[in-house]
Amino acid sequence: MHQNEFPKVERAFLVGAEVRGTNSVISLQDSLSELALLAETAGMEVVGQTTQTLNSIVPATFIGSGKLEEVQAVIKELEADAVIFDDELSPRHQREISKVFGNDIKLLDRSALILDIFAQHAKTKEGSLQVELAQYEYRLPRLTRQWTHLARQAGGSAAGSGVGGVGLRGPGETQLEVDRREIGRKIDRIKRDLEGVRQHRSQHRQQRRKTGIPVIALVGYTNAGKSTLLNHLTNASVYAQDQLFATLDPTTRRTALPSGRQVLLTDTVGFIQKLPTTLIAAFRATLEETQEASMLLHMVDISHPNVVAHIDVVEDTLAEIDVPSMPRILVWNKIDRWAGDTPPQFPDSDMYREQVCISARTGEGVPELLEAIERVFAQELVRITLQIPFERGDLVSRLYRIGRVLTQESSAEGMILDVEIPKSAQDRYQDFAYENT
C-alpha cells in the first residue's frame, strides 16, 4: 500500500459552552479535555478548540452567531474535517449549524461521538444490538432530507415509494417518511431481540441465585481499571487498555476469597458525564447485572484530578437506573500513579462500608481489598443450624461455597451444620432449620 492510500485521519475541532449561573459536575475546560480523549479514542486528531460563556443556550444555533462565524473561519484555516460540540445538540441546532458549516464538515456532538466509539468497541451480538438501538433512537428525531440513503440501504427507493402521479408531497418529503418508517421498524426489531437477550440473562441470573454464590458488580467511571482488576483476580483475558470505553460487554468470572468462599465478579460498562440517555436505556439489559448484585465495588482512578466528580457521576447514573441499596466498597485504584498520602474527602463517603487503596495493575493492596470484601460479607451473614439429609450432599457442598461452616457432625437423620450464610439465602434453607430439643 502506498503512503497516500492510508485512510485519512479526520481532523476535529472542539466547541464547548457553559451557561452563567449553572453548576456543572466537571469544569468546562476539563470536560473539553475529556471530549478530546473521546475524539482520539474514536480515531480522530484534535486540531483546536474554543469555548463560550452564555446567559442561555441560543435556541437556533446553540452558541452565538458571531461565535459560530468565528468557528467557521478557524476550521477553514485549520483544514478541519469535523466539529464536535461538548453537549448534545437538538435537531434544530444540528440543522441550523450545518447550514453555516456546509455539507463538507461533519457535525457531531458528544452523544454522537460516544455512540461512534461504542459502535467501534462492541464485540458481542448483544453489545452491537444495544449500540444499534441507541444510534437509531438518536438519529430518528434528527432525520433530514439528506438521509435518503437509509431507505435505499433497506431496499427501498424514491421511485418505489408511491410518489409518481399523486403530486401531494415532494419526493424528499415522502422519502423522509419512508426513512422514518424504516428506522421505526428497525427499532422495534432490535427491541424484540434485546428483550430475548434480557430474558436469557434473567435465566442465567436465576441459575446463579440457585447456587447461592454472591455476585459482586464492578462499577466505575470509564477507564477506572475495572477490567484490569477482573483480570488480576480471576486470570481472565478481558480486553483492558488505558483508554475510554476499552470494553463494553459485561463479563462474569468466578473467584475465591481468602476464606475459600466462592464469588462471581461482573465487569460492567464504564460511565461518563453527559452519557446519552439513549445509551443508558439501550444498555439497561447489561446494567441489570448491577441491579442483581450482592455487592458493588465502585472503582475510581485516584490519580485523576476529577476523581471526586467521577464518583458523583457514577452514583447519579446508578440512581438513574434504579440500582437498589446494597453494600458498597469504594476502591481507590491506580495508587502506583499517585503521590498523595490519604484519599480525597467527599460528602457522601458514609455510603461505603469500606474504602481500600489498590493498584489493579501491580496487585498492590488487592489482598487488603479481598479482606474488606470478606468483612462486608460477614456483616451480611446470619448464623443458623441446619440438619441436612445424607442424600443431599449437594446442599452441604453449596453451603461451603456460599458461606462459612463453623461445625459439622453426624446424627441419625443427617448432617448437622452450624453455618453462617448470606441473609438472601436463608429462606432457601428454612426447611432444614434444626433446633436441638
Question: Could you walk me through the main structural features you see in this protein, from its secondary elements to its overall organization?
Answer:
The chain is α/β, with parallel strands linked by helices. The protein has four domains: 6-117, GTPase HflX, N-terminal domain (Rossmann fold), CATH 3.40.50.11060; 122-195, no CATH class; 213-378, Rossmann fold (3-Layer(aba) Sandwich); 381-432, Alpha-Beta Plaits. Helices cover 40% and strands 19% of the residues. It has 13 helices and 13 strands. The protein has a six-stranded mixed sheet with strand order 6-7-5-8-9-10, sandwiched between helices. It has a four-stranded parallel sheet with strand order 2-1-3-4, sandwiched between helices. β1, α1 (28-41) and β2 (45-54) form a beta-alpha-beta unit. α1 packs parallel to α4 (110-121) and α5 (125-139) runs antiparallel to α7 (171-211). The radius of gyration is 27 Å and the shape is elongated. The model is unreliable at 145-169 (pLDDT under 50).
